[in-house]
Each structure stands twice: as C-alpha cells, then as structure tokens.
Amino acid sequence: MMEPVRKCRKCLLAELDNEKLLADVRQAVDRLGEELKVSDEVYRLRLEVCKECDYLNEGTCNACGCYVELRAATKAGSCPYSKWKGIKLDVHKQA
Questions:
Q1: Which whole-number Å values give the CA distances from 61 to 2, 9, 49, 87, 90, in the listed order?
Q2: Which of 32, 76, 82, 95 is the most buried (most CB within 10 A)?
C-alpha cells in the first residue's frame, strides 16, 4: 500500500515528500549563475522568513505563486510584501 503524500501548509519543498518537484526546483537553482545567486546565509535567512509567513503553502507563496526556494536564491528575487527588505544581499558571501 502506498503511503499518502505528506501535506504541510507551512513547509518548504525540502520538507515535503515530493522528491521530483524538489529536484526540479533545486536544479533550477543550480542552473542560476553564481552572479545571480545570493549567499548561503542570505538564502537561509530568507527561507526562515518564509517559514513564518502565512502565505507559505506547501513550498509556494500564495501571494505571488512562486516556489519560495527558487525565488529566495536569486538576487533579483523579492518578497511581494517586502518581508526580506531587512536582509542585506552581502551577508556572509561564501565562495
């Protein structure tokens, strides 16, 4: 018997049981040029904000429809409600 897919309204894709979708999003992040990506620390901080947001729904933002793990990875990405504005892009840039 197959186990049901775990539903979690306040989860990121990495925390859900949808391996194919998570792999696709991670591949999209990996394909971004390094000049387009934020540091690991900025990415982590952005995702922490998303995890607390009422608009997070199974890895997507109900405000704009994006996959938050993809949007959070890009320098051009922004929160539609400006919840990331206190996070500076140059926080601990890792090589």
A1: 28, 11, 12, 18, 24
A2: 32
